[in-house]
Specification:
It is a single chain. With 235 residues, the protein is of the alpha/beta class. It contains eight helices and eight strands, in the order H-H-E-E-H-H-E-H-H-E-E-H-E-E-H-E. The longest helix has 23 residues. It is globular and about 50 Å long. The N terminus and C terminus are likely disordered.
Length: 235
Amino acid sequence: LARLVLPVCCPGCGEQDVPLCGPCASSLRGPVRRCEAGAPRLDHLDGTAPLPVWAAASYSGPVRGIVPAWKDGGRADLTPRMLDAIARCAAAAGPALAAAADGRCVRIVAAPSRPGVARRRGADLVGLLAERSAVELRRLGLQARVVPTLVRRRGRDQVGLGARDRSLNLRDALRARGAPHGFHLLVDDVLTTGATLAACEDVLAVAGGLVLGALVVAATPRITRAPLSACGSEG
């Protein structure tokens, strides 16, 4: 009777009466990969290596329906899937983070949302990802704790904006509070152009912190240009 009033379907493929079908769920369980090379806004103009980012899934196929349903569709039942995905990222990044931190504490920082977003969604969803990441890193033996170091002022949502507009939208929208010295690890839900993570990294760096890397549930596939030789040869 409840399903007649509030029908449920898989957010990945639309299959009825299934909260999340097996094939779509498996799209969140692929191998964790480094994905910073596909985010142009993470490039540093001075030639230094971009911020390392670990992703649990590609933001394509079923994942493009699953993540928005979790974030803005009220699908709190998907939270355990998201937490499992970010925990796998933390486990994969753990050895590199441990080597860089060398026994010192790593502060886990959730990419801040616009004011009012957490209230509208019913929870600070990215904050939940950060908490789960800290738990996994502590399980691996690292000193890790979540610190609300970054806050975001009011501004336009990033959804639907291009790389340049995302950067402009975030300009002066973030600020650090407290004394954010030491090592930091950023956590977010999706990596697209890298504008959000780049802005977070810049703010923390100016305030005296050092960002070791970032974890995301999913990352937009890298767009590559086909070689000219691959074009049709006829004519």
